[in-house]
Amino acid sequence: MQPALDDTSTLTDPSPSATSTAPAAPAPTEKRDWRDSFATLKIRNYRLFVQSQIIANTGLWMQRVAQDWLVLQLTGSVAAVGMTVALQFTPMLVFGLLGGVIADRYPKRTLLTISQSSAGVLAGMLALLTLTGAVHAWHVYLIAIMLGFVTVIDNPARQVFVNEMVGPEHLRNAISVNSSIFQLGGLIGPAISGILIHAVGEGWSFAINAVACGYVVVTLLRMRTSELRVSPTVARGKGQLREGLRYAASEPAIRWTIVLVAFVAVFGMNMPVLLAAFAKDVFHLGAGGYGLFNSLVAAGALVGALTSTRRGGIRLRLLAGAAAVFGILQATASIAPVMLIYCITLVFIGAATLVFLTGANTLVQSTAGIELRGRVMSLYVLVLLGGQAIGAVIMGRISESFGPRAAMAISGLTPAIATIGIAFILARTAQLKLEVDLHRHAPAGHLRVVPRVA
Questions:
Q1: Are residues 414 and 144 in contact, defined by beta-carbon separation less than 8 angstroms?
Q2: Whole-angstrom Cα distance, residue 140 to residue 121?
Q3: Over 90: is that where the pLDDT of 230 sits?
Q4: N or C: which end of the chain has fewer CB within 10 A?
């Protein structure tokens, strides 16, 4: 593998026949034409998958908003909302690496069929409890943690299944399209859920998500298996988990990307907790305001995801820059004097978040060899979701103890400062330095990274 310690390193996908140690060839990072932004939709299986995911992600976002608001109504506690988020992510934190081993051992389409069926049943149970008025906070907690166990299998299997549908040559574009779809659901789902909560309560949002999960299962069964580039399954054996961890630690591109993701996930990606607190305690809005805030973040994220579909490659420099910008924007939102400024900042936060997450996902997947991709992606997802589980509790407590504004300031400043520190470590390791180019033909104040001369 070509190291990605400096700003000029690029990585591309391994070939379909790549083994776990196959090197990734350098690739250009120029932007593509807008006409190529959705090239992967020409592939039938992936097109079916995208159609189902538009519905599924809308339902998922509806359930997320309804779940958080239901807990807030049942308990009156922002910390309880954070606890619910933590419970849903805790199984990934504890068993996430095992999920990657399972994803490498079994057919991904089968695993997704099972996981989506299970998620649909759990959403249906929560809908029934809520619509009949029998729901209590402990019901929501229990179903949240059961959904977390579903995610342990679903997420790494889904990450690898994308590669099976489109092939390594279209992987970057497919990841960006997936992010666009997820954020499109985030744009539509919270708004619909906010309206439903106000009109008829939270239960119907859960019911719609149950139906959406069923639709995904039907779509998976409709796919043409002959057109899938099925990843080789790994036979049961000892030390497979340790093998995946050693590989991730040995690859600089994967190692430093996961470190960046850890800081952003733990401290920055706790928007359900922070937005609920701002809607309730700062701007004194109801469920509609909470849904609006979520939709604004998703709108910005959708723009960021669509922009990412044009990028032909990814650099570690882009990740560090996006993480720093994200942190600064989040800290800025904490001091927004009026709701209008707060809302505008949320849009930019969403865009920066998706540029960062899309780049991180692409860099990790395209660096990892195909036989180890499930385990490597499970580590990535463990850090991403497990970090949110830890951070949700922390930020919920900080919000209740010191106020929502202090919590949002900390959630932004911490990853921003950490990212700057990591950037200096990478530059020092690669013996790079910043140089100001004052040549008359150069843009004013132009900065560039150059090798350090001994």
A1: no
A2: 14
A3: no
A4: C
Nearest alpha carbon to residue 281 among 297, 269, 266, 293: 293
Interior angle at CA 357, CA 43 and CA 377, nearest 5? 70
The DSSP line for 24-85 is PPP---PBPPGGGTTGGGGSHHHHHHHHHHHHHHHHHHHHHHHHHHHHHHHH--HHHHHHHH
Task: Please report which confidence band the pLDDT of residue 198 belongs to, taking 50, 70 and 90 as the band edges.
Answer: confident
CA distances, 448 to each of 142, 258, 437 (Å) = 52, 25, 7
CA–CA separation, 46 and 38 (whole Å)? 11
Alpha carbon dihedral 115, 116, 118, 124, in 10-degree steps, equals 160
Asked if 377 and 62 touch (Cβ cutoff 8 Å), the reply is no
Strand pairing report for 446-451 and 432-437: antiparallel
Q: Summarize pLDDT for 143-197 with one digit per residue, the tens.
A: 999 998 998 889 888 878 888 888 877 777 787 787 677 767 766 777 788 788 8
pLDDT tens string 284-325: 887 778 778 877 887 887 787 677 666 556 677 778 888 888
**Rounded Cα–Cα distance for residues 127 and 69 (Å):** 14
Backbone angles phi, psi at 436, to 5 degrees: -90, 120
| Residues belonging to the chain | 454
- Let me know: does 51 contact 219? Beta carbons within 8 Å: yes
pLDDT number for residue 309? 63
Residue 121 structure tokens? 């049943």
Question: Which H/E stretch holds residue 448?
Answer: strand 446-451
